[in-house]
Each structure stands twice: as structure tokens, then as C-alpha cells.
UniProtKB/TrEMBL annotation:
<keyword id="KW-0648">Protein biosynthesis</keyword>
<feature type="region of interest" description="Disordered">
    <location>
        <begin position="1"/>
        <end position="28"/>
    </location>
</feature>
<comment type="similarity">
    <text>Belongs to the eukaryotic initiation factor 4E family.</text>
</comment>
<keyword id="KW-0396">Initiation factor</keyword>
<dbReference type="Pfam" id="PF01652">
    <property type="entry name" value="IF4E"/>
</dbReference>
<dbReference type="GO" id="GO:0016281">
    <property type="term" value="C:eukaryotic translation initiation factor 4F complex"/>
</dbReference>
<dbReference type="InterPro" id="IPR023398">
    <property type="entry name" value="TIF_eIF4e-like"/>
</dbReference>
<feature type="compositionally biased region" description="Acidic residues">
    <location>
        <begin position="18"/>
        <end position="28"/>
    </location>
</feature>
<dbReference type="GO" id="GO:0000340">
    <property type="term" value="F:RNA 7-methylguanosine cap binding"/>
</dbReference>
<protein>
    <submittedName>
        <fullName>(Mediterranean fruit fly) hypothetical protein</fullName>
    </submittedName>
</protein>
<dbReference type="GO" id="GO:0003743">
    <property type="term" value="F:translation initiation factor activity"/>
</dbReference>
<dbReference type="InterPro" id="IPR001040">
    <property type="entry name" value="TIF_eIF_4E"/>
</dbReference>
<keyword id="KW-0694">RNA-binding</keyword>
Length: 169
């Protein structure tokens, strides 16, 4: 019997992110030093490799924002994305002032990143009962290069803000 290939996505377990109010976890992964992800022959390669980030707003001063960013995982194919995404808690389960960010690898979800310094943002505010499907749709559009603006869009960010609702930037 043939041996099954190992999973090619990378992820880091983040237990109880929805309920964790402890001090920030150590950000042990330096995403810039990770080797390229391998894409298997039966996988559908994405145009870019993407990193999924998690952060808690307000846990650090603006100058230390990068310390609140944590790499959850990365993907280079459709199959790797679904392997990663299927293990995530849904946005409606996150506590207020949490962020999920899906950005092209090499670009951090912060204004200070050189790829973002001249950028802007679109903000979409949604009721909590609409956010899970909207986040999934925006992520799929990002991964599938459906925005039709070339390389202008670096990533998407979901921010939970209650009770007024959630927003996607």
C-alpha cells in the first residue's frame, strides 16, 4: 500500500483563541525565514502563497503592534487553504477586538510594512450573523485573484467589534 503524502500546509495550534485573554503568546514563527511551501502534483496552486495572521487589538502600543501578530498558518494551494481553514474557529466565535488577516506571504498586516505604506482600505461593516459567510467569501475572492486589480490588494482583515458589528477591511 502506498504511503500517504504528508500535509503540505503549516499551522500552529492556538487553543482557545476565542476565549483567551492571557498576555500575548510568543510569536515563535519568523515567516520570512520559512522555506517555500511545496505544492503536490494533484493540488491546485494559488498565484501567491498566503499567510493567515491573528492578533488582539489594544494589547500593545502602536509602536509594538508587530508583537501582537501571530502566524496561524500559510498555504500555497487550494487544498492547503481548505485544510487550514477547516480547522479555524469561525469569526462569530471570536471575542471583541480580535483580528484575522489573510495577506500575501512577505507582507505583514500592518501599515508599516513597505508594501502597505501607500495603500488604503475599504471597510465593510456587517451584522454579526452575516460575518462568517462574508469572511469566507472575501478570503476566497482574495485567494482566487477575483478583485481584478493586479497586485494592488495585499490582503484582507477581519476585525471583531461588538456590539456595533464586525467589519472587513
Amino acid at each position: 500500500m502506498d504511503k500517504m503524502p504528508s500535509k503540505q500546509f503549516e499551522s500552529k495550534p492556538w487553543p482557545d483563541l476565542a476565549d483567551s485573554d492571557d498576555s500575548d503568546m510568543e510569536n515563535e514563527i519568523d515567516v520570512d525565514k520559512l522555506p517555500p511551501l511545496e505544492v503536490g502534483p494533484n493540488e491546485n496552486r494559488l498565484q501567491h502563497t498566503y499567510c493567515l495572521w491573528f492578533s488582539r487589538k489594544g494589547t500593545h502600543r502602536a509602536t509594538d503592534y508587530s508583537k501582537s501578530l501571530h502566524v496561524v498558518g500559510r498555504c500555497a494551494s487550494v487544498q492547503q487553504w481548505w485544510s487550514l481553514y477547516s480547522h479555524l474557529i469561525r469569526p462569530t466565535a471570536l471575542k471583541p477586538y480580535r483580528e484575522l488577516s489573510l495577506f500575501k506571504q512577505g507582507i505583514k498586516p500592518m501599515w508599516e510594512d513597505p508594501a502597505n505604506t501607500k495603500g488604503g482600505q475599504w471597510v465593510i461593516r456587517l451584522r454579526k450573523n452575516k460575518i462568517d459567510r462574508a469572511w469566507e467569501n472575501v478570503c476566497m475572492a482574495m485567494l482566487g485573484e477575483q478583485f481584478l486589480v493586479g497586485d494592488e490588494i495585499c490582503g484582507v482583515v477581519l476585525t471583531t467589534k461588538y456590539p456595533t458589528g464586525n467589519q472587513i477591511n
